[in-house]
Amino acid sequence: MDFMELAADRYSVRSFSDRPVEQEKIDKILKAAQLAPTAVNFQPQMIYILKSEEAMAKINRLCRCIYGAPMVFLVCSDESRTWKSQTERGYSSGEMDCSIVCTHMMLEAWEQGIGSVWVRLFDVKEVAKAFGFPSNIKPVCLLPVGYATEDCVPYVPWHDVYRPIEDFVEEL
Prior knowledge:
- By secondary structure, this protein is an alpha+beta fold.
- 34% of the residues lie in helices and 15% in strands.
- Strands 1-2-4-3 form a 4-stranded antiparallel sheet, with helices on both faces.
């Protein structure tokens, strides 16, 4: 599948089977995370793989949008490794970098036949506390992953409806 087909085909999976994801597929998803571009290539991402019964119970208590996934990537920013802007006081590249990393992971997962859904419906401080993260580790997003159930379809009927390019591009 070429990239445009992959991008058009992918959708957020919100109904997962309990079939475990094979380690070789997890490894490819993590390789995609490693290859993702980050500001100044500082690579501030820290990814926690939640698969144990204890970790999954904890994340399911903290977030209602795990959708029965057998595992979750918890993508965090190590704020001690982020690029800091010299022109905009207080700006850190962590969230942006982790967003790019997560996008690479989602697309590679889909290439491997694995569904995912980007989730940000959680309290950052509560997740950090529950998993015992040091103060420099900031949770950015959750990526529940796994095999979609047979009846899984895109959540919204307008999933494949896009604004015209002219509607969001302007030449200056």
